[in-house]
Amino acid sequence: MKALLSLLLLLQLLFAMSQAQCPAPADLKNPNGTRICSQMYTDDSPYYDLCCAGSVLVVPAGEDQPYMPTAFNNKISSLVVATRCELTVWYKKGKTGSTRKFKTGAYPRLQEYKRGLFGNWNDAISAYYCKCT
User: Cα dihedral angle (24, 133, 124, 119), rounded to 10 degrees?
Assistant: First the structure.
């Protein structure tokens, strides 16, 4: 019984290690070395080291999207903004509704960032603009 418990704990640890962790802002680069402004992810977790998971939307510098791609519309739960970059997001399509600017850094749980009086930014992004200096 003790061996089975040890094996289960080991499997749980390996599973946790295989899950995502938010990349450092300085690490956001394409394989050819070109700059990525931001990466947005569809999944988060109550555990910070398991955030930035699920499908990823790679945002190049200067990209301006008044309409989020269908697979990501209102599904972003965590994001990372590259060094010397800023991501502006909107709550509604067409760049309307509430807005917020995310500066350089990792934002693993968007539910911790207020949007208005009662809302938060988890699953609430419908448009974006990303710029770098």
Answer: 90
**Which residues make Cβ contacts (< 8 Å) with residue 55, sequence separation at least 6?**
41, 42, 43, 71, 72, 75
pLDDT tens column, 87-102: 999 999 999 999 999 9
Percent of the chain clearing pLDDT 90 (strictly above): 72
* Range 22-46 burial, b when 16+ CB lie within 10 A, else e: bbebeebeeeeeeebbbbbbbbbbe
Separation of alpha carbons 104 and 122, rounded Å: 18
CA distance 114 to 125: 13
User: Distance between CA 122 and CA 113 in Å, rounded?
Assistant: 8
